[in-house]
Specification:
Layout (H helix, E strand, L loop, with lengths): L2 H16 L11 H7 L3 E3 L4 E3 L9 H7 L3 E3 L4 E3 L6
Antiparallel strand pairs: 1-2, 3-4
Length: 84
Amino acid sequence: MTSHRMRATLVVLVALAGLSGCASQVRLSGKTMCEAHGGSYASQTKQCSYPAQPPPRTALQICQMHGGEWDDVSDTCAVNDRTK
């Protein structure tokens, strides 16, 4: 996966975590970051394995992967805050 796509995914994760209002720092596990990029995480070696070339995903698919509801008009994904 390209570094641009990886940065974009992390930006989305940080933005979603920041929606809770009081969070000044977000902690993401290695597993969370890896799986957000379509990888498989090995906790013993702390390594993320990626498929050779994952197929492109639509915004709808990515939103659904995060358990959200996609709004095509506003081009946004609504994800429930599971920390509350």
